[in-house]
Amino acid sequence: MTEFDALLAEYTDRGNPKVHGVICKCVDKNGNEIYNKIAGYDSISPDASPLREDVVLKLGSATKLITSIALLQCVDEGLIGLDDPLTDVLPEFESKSILTDVSGSNMTFENSEVSITARHLLTHTSGLGYPFTHPLLRLRAEARRADPNYSQNYSYRVTERYTMPLVFEPGTGWLYGCSLDWAGVVVSRLHDGISLGDYMVENIWKRLGLLAPFPCFNIALHPEYNARAMQGVTRTPSGRLEPCDRWAFDNNEDQEGGSGLSCTAQDFVAVLADLVSETPKLLKPATIAEMFTPQLVPNSPSIKMLLGLRVAWDTVAGPVSEDRINHGLCGVLCTGSVPEIGQPKNVLAWGGASNIVWWVNRDNGVAGFFATQQAPFGNPTVTSLVNAWKRDFWTRFGNVDRA
């Protein structure tokens, strides 16, 4: 038993779980599964069943990778350019304003002079955020909630829920936010209004050879698929696990390209395998290469803002030095190695609020996926387990003779 095996058994102990269930998978450039560990249970109930290979997982922001690929397919098809303004497709982006101050219900704005592009959406440099990632957007949200008619008028439609001002001129900063939710709208509108989920079935899941039931949005509307879902839990400050019946990203009214997908581990790993394949089916090789190209100017305000929100990516990147961090087209990019966990340079990674983690390393032709269903994201318990998993994999990988 390895150190990680022992830690995994300890953390998923039925009598006192720290993490109730975990799936870890790694795949190589030939599509071979080269690492697979499943431990724990599908819920915290006394009669919980051992976690199964085909358990359905809510991805949270790991959805962003799939939506990013869909948007890049639009670039590959010549429907849009990576650096072309998106206002023809998204008239909502015309005449965007930059929020500069909030005092009670009074807000101050400046006009934006730069058009948002696909590259901005893919790199979180659009100026769009979430209320929980920027203080001005938080204050704006609080002021809006103070309106007596707020609840009555609130909409979960992406084009309404994520209509918000910018907080900086596109291309001049970095902020984690709703950019990929808007990317999903772009994909839909460029394909005659097809739903994002239906687009993914035809252009991602079927291309990879998957069979129904396919990954889906609005899982609550798919009872048979939902019945296979792993229970979500919340880790309390005392370390106790309690049921989480609803995630902040649950949305039964629309399909959010930033957070709404549910799928199995095998479904997601199929996407990762294609990104390291020498004959990819989803994107052109040059497009994939661009995904792994640093997109932020070193020592720029964008880099400083990325580093300032380390809580958003620390768990997926590992204990990497700040001078070795950038951003690719679909995730945080570790440009240097992370000796503490044996991780090599040029690893692209991201994850989701339910403590999903994915990473891709094209240099070595391998990719990995870690999943549980626990909040809050990036808590120390899960982070330690993720780092132990990576260390275990990279140690094994380095000891394999691939001559």
Automatic annotation (TrEMBL):
<dbReference type="InterPro" id="IPR050789">
    <property type="entry name" value="Diverse_Enzym_Activities"/>
</dbReference>
<comment type="similarity">
    <text>Belongs to the class-A beta-lactamase family.</text>
</comment>
<protein>
    <submittedName>
        <fullName>Beta-lactamase/transpeptidase-like protein</fullName>
    </submittedName>
</protein>
<feature type="domain" description="Beta-lactamase-related">
    <location>
        <begin position="29"/>
        <end position="376"/>
    </location>
</feature>
<keyword id="KW-0378">Hydrolase</keyword>
<dbReference type="InterPro" id="IPR012338">
    <property type="entry name" value="Beta-lactam/transpept-like"/>
</dbReference>
<dbReference type="GO" id="GO:0016787">
    <property type="term" value="F:hydrolase activity"/>
</dbReference>
<dbReference type="Pfam" id="PF00144">
    <property type="entry name" value="Beta-lactamase"/>
</dbReference>
<dbReference type="InterPro" id="IPR001466">
    <property type="entry name" value="Beta-lactam-related"/>
</dbReference>
